[in-house]
Write a sequence for this structure.
């Protein structure tokens, strides 16, 4: 594709030779002739200078050094759009595969695509132009919004509601029974039925093999008629994440891979849970908080707070303490020496 | 539903106006007119006093303040039964879906329900009234007891045996090949075939996307003819749990989400592994032990012991040390100051 | 089976009574009459002396105490082969199940076995003698080598390439969209399309419900034309592992259960990541390195290095510090006492 064509298709201004051929995309450190890359900010000016990319997407004031470039206030986002141009992936065509089992009581919208061996239960509703890949299982009573993309083998259990433009990666299980049990008088354990489902807002993404459990009526309702496990809008959840019953995630939250949210965890708007971190449940992670990878959150985290550690503490304190942690044996020896000098016995003498 | 009807259906005594209408269930802190809640003990008496619930399930001696209530020694368990009444969920009807592929050599009991696209292999046996949701894969030689509920997309590999009333949530894989390899003389790695399966006792629950691996003949047999990975009775396993080859879980064990049990882990009766905890394998967690969330168990844990930490230590010691952990940098400075006062050089000077 | 038959079939020398009957396999500590076990080295000579096994596979110079035995330089590997003899598991027969949906544009090699309800998309290629169990989903453009074994419910997304003799356990998702987003000028988040797939080398094993994400063109290409998430040859990956977009694993790497590799993690040849460990991403774990279970790798790990801890440090240092960790409260008290003796105030006084 020529540079000027690319610029036109992305709706961007370009500089340099219009006929520059771009045939591939590459990272800044590797891009060569005929390849398009991007630069996100001034801190990369040295790498840009050393780069041999055929063209780059640059921020508005960034010095192009006279090379072919496209201008954008969000270079990485435009690069993402360029990926779509160079590696197009057509959606499956609308229509219902002959092998799909669709309950007569289910409703399919306009332009819906239902793949091979999809099973759709009674009372389920699929919104316009949504796409279900092969082997998706939609239990009775599920509602899926418009323009959703549900990849292969996803399981949507009863009473799950998805908004519009929700993407679910393969194998995810949404709406399974939460891990809730009640003790009987004899000390045995009975299961609490989790019947009130999961609600996922517009533009959310759910990763491969992630599990999100349904709620039951003893969970907080947050002003609604019935308690649901809920994700707001534009929540991004990575792979192999567990979201427990009764959790409540506000808009724009990010949950990285292998995170475990214990039941009734609230996560405030825009907060981030780093990979492999976890919440003990029954706590609130504040708006804009950043929970570092691997952190065990054992109580509330304030708005905008950054925490690390198992169990968690302010990141600043954790990092300093962890750096000192390796000096613990030395510290014991030094204190022992001081005690000897002062003719004190230590506690363990 | 009227209060007296509800009481009759739950088999409980009630107090207050028999015609009190109950239309929904709610937590104690939120319940309002027409809503039923529950109180588990005296410690909630203040919250009960402040509650506006239409009716509550109360322990026998709890002061009802003259309000409508039902009496039970296990209020939460009765609330669970009430959830079933207010949010009934009919089971799929008995019968075999026309799209199910059932090997002629498989045996299905009375009243079994087999959903769309279930695949049942040769020699498999499904007990009476068990229910297989769509897309379940039952490999050859599997045996499922009576009254089991196997949700969509579960994979039961060869030689897996489930007892009665076992519930398996969507996407779980039971009986996959364990992570077992043997070194060859040249230092290469060959796979050890794991052919002897998994045995799961009555009334167990297995969570969504959980994986439980099969054993092989070099694993401990615990007095049986052949080694199997085994769960006893009433074991509750949450979502995204890994149970490695040769593990042996006794009755009434609880395994929370994202726990990893390395191979040949024994877990004694009634023990609890908190979320995101892990066992290095080849160790025993004693009966009634409590392994806190996030703990790395690196050796045996005694009966009734409570442990925390990575790697684990008694919880009492861990909590105190962790509280002191944030004071490590301060400690280094204080020791430096003492050494200066005593005109001692520190180790790093 | 007679001892001499067993020896002949395994191609090993034997000692002792040729007609010794072997009917089962067992671990050294449990094996009895008629059972075969193995001994891996001298350190087990006391257990061997105490064993009542009918026969054992022994290293060449190991003292058999006059008992029936087979000789091998790799006893465990031969035991593994004996498991195959005593617990044979026939492969599914070649052929395509009538319910499989195979795109006319897909190519199936010689002797391929395609199970019930497998879906194979356009342009996919399956190599000779490969075996796809029921419910496998093969998206368009996937290529699978020869002699592969793909268990039930595996999802192979677009542009995934598997080499020869690759084994994938049930429920794994290979090639899902990575967790990659770009910020727009307004601060919103757009998804970066991950279109360039995953490449998995010969003889790899992927565990149950493991997720491996596809890459996009901004990931490192390692000298190739396009960036892919890549596993080399003979890489063994356990269950419930997350391998993020752009990761690059060299030959003979071992990844244990519940490991999380953040995007763009490089793992050098022969390195081992212990269970539940994790990489923050954008780092290199050196060749032959050993990352202990539960470790949080937050930066490069050198070749052959052994690390532990969250965040990681050399194992030797971590172990000593962790042993001293439980003495932190004691240390604070001892320093307080010293300060009092020297009439110094502490920092918190």
């Amino acid at each position: 594709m020529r540079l000027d064509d690319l610029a036109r298709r992305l709706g961007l201004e370009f500089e340099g030779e219009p006929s520059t051929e771009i045939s591939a995309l590459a990272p800044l450190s590797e891009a060569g002739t005929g390849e398009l890359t991007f630069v996100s900010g001034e801190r990369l000016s040295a790498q840009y200078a050393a780069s041999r990319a055929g063209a780059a997407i640059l921020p508005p004031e960034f010095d192009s050094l006279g090379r072919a470039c496209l201008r954008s206030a969000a270079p990485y986002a435009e690069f993402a759009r360029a990926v779509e141009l160079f590696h197009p992936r057509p959606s499956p065509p609308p229509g219902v595969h002959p092998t799909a089992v669709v309950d007569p009581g289910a409703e399919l919208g306009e332009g819906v695509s239902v793949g091979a061996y999809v099973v759709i239960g009674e009372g389920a509703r699929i919104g316009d132009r949504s796409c279900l890949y092969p082997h998706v299982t939609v239990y009775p009573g599920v509602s899926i919004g418009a323009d959703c993309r549900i990849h292969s083998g996803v399981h949507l259990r009863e009473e799950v509601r998805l908004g519009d433009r929700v993407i679910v990666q393969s194998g995810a299980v949404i709406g399974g029974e939460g891990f809730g049990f009640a003790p009987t008088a004899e000390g045995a354990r009975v299961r609490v039925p989790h019947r009130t489902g999961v609600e996922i807002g517009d533009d959310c993404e759910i990763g491969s093999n992630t599990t999100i459990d349904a709620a039951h009526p003893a969970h907080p309702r947050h002003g609604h008629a019935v308690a649901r496990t809920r994700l707001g809008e534009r929540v991004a959840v990575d792979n192999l994440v567990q979201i427990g019953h009764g959790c409540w995630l506000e808009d724009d939250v990010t949950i990285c891979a292998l995170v475990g949210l214990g039941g009734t965890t609230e996560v405030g708007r825009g907060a981030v849970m780093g990979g492999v971190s976890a919440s003990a449940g029954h706590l609130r992670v504040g708006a804009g908080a950043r929970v570092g990878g691997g952190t065990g959150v054992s109580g509330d985290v304030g708005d905008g707070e950054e925490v690390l550690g198992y169990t968690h503490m302010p990141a600043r304190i954790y990092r300093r303490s962890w750096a000192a942690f390796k000096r613990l044996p030395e510290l014991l020896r030094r204190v022992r020496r001081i005690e000897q000098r002062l003719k004190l016995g230590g506690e363990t003498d």
Chain B touches chain A through 70 residues (CB under 8 Å). The first helix of chain B runs from residue 3 to 10. The two ends of chain B are 79 Å apart (CA to CA).
